[in-house]
Amino acid sequence: MSVSGKILKDIIRACVLGAIILCLAVSMGVSGAVRDRMTCTGTEITVLDSAECGFVSEQDVLEYLSEGYGQTAGVPIGNLDLKKMETMLDSRSAILKSEAYCTRDGILHIDITQRKPFMRFQKDGAGFYADEEGYIFPVRPGRSGYVVVIDGHIPLRLDSSRQGKPVSEKERAWLGQMTDLVGYMSEHKGWDRNIVQINVRENGDLVLIPREGRERFIFGKPERTEEKFGLMECYYGTILPVAGKDRYGSVDVRYEGQIICK
Predict the structure, then answer these.
(1) Is residue 34 part of a domain?
(2) Torsion angle in degrees (nearest 10) through CA of 41, 86, 132, 126
(3) What's the total number of domains in the chain?
(4) pLDDT tens-digit series, residues 34-83
(5) What 3-state class would DSSP assign to 17?
(6) What span, in angstroms and rounded, lies between the C-alpha atoms of 174 and 128?
(7) Is 3 exposed, middle or buried (CB count within 10 Å of its CB: 0-12, 13-18, 19+)?
């Protein structure tokens, strides 16, 4: 091929590429203009983990939108502030993450991921959940999760407006210890199914209450977790079969290498 022929071929190729880019740009511009004129024809809510948690319903999200954002139906798609919607929804206590987007049919879609309760605090007649990250949020009437209940002298500030992670370092440290404790229970030998309640005494000691039996395990501070559960396992495996059911009311595992039954 001659030099002039190669140059002509390159020119033709550049022209074709330019035409394609121009067509795409025009098409995108038209699509954007059409999208901006299109109005929102409806809202579709999807709670992605509804089978695992039951703390947020589709109706809840619609009410949050109405109260916290305003009208969406009939509003031009281009005027919807999707980021504002997500920020507002994410501020709701039981919502971990929201994603808002619109499709070509004018439907506003909102996908919701809920917070998963890890433990429940009961204090002064009010209930609060904490997730595995230490985020605390209030229990809503009619909504419940099957997690261990912690009551008594809980060293956390809990009131009707409580939402979020603890502010003080002391509270964060204690909540972290409790998260480790409950996490150990859920990962080892089904302790989370056997221990249904944890009472916090005034001195900070924990008392673990099993689903069955009259024993109350005096656990002490939320530390040396593996060692203490090892003593509890020893009680169930060697002492209980010999002593018989309901023989002891308290089983103290606070001390290293000792099981004190009364």
Answers:
(1) no
(2) -80
(3) 2
(4) 555 789 999 999 998 765 667 788 999 999 999 999 999 999 999 999 99
(5) helix
(6) 16
(7) exposed
Prediction pTM value: 0.76
Token output for 149: 């209940």
User: Are 144 and 256 members of one domain?
Assistant: yes
The C-alpha torsion from 197 through 202 and 205 to 210, rounded to 10°, is -20
Q: Distance (Å, rounded) from C-alpha 77 to C-alpha 27?
A: 18
pLDDT for 254: 97
- C-alpha distances (whole Å) from 149 to each of 16, 124, 146, 200, 229 are 69, 14, 9, 11, 18
DSSP per residue over 60-71, as a string?
Answer: HHHHHHHHHT--
Distance CA 166, CA 171 (A): 6
Pair of tokens at residue 88 = 């507002």
Give the pLDDT confidence of 71-108 residue by residue, as tens digits. Answer: 999 999 999 999 999 999 999 888 999 999 999 899 99
Domain of 97: which CATH number?
3.10.20
Residues 57 and 183: their CA atoms lie apart, in Å, by 27
pLDDT at 30 over 50: no
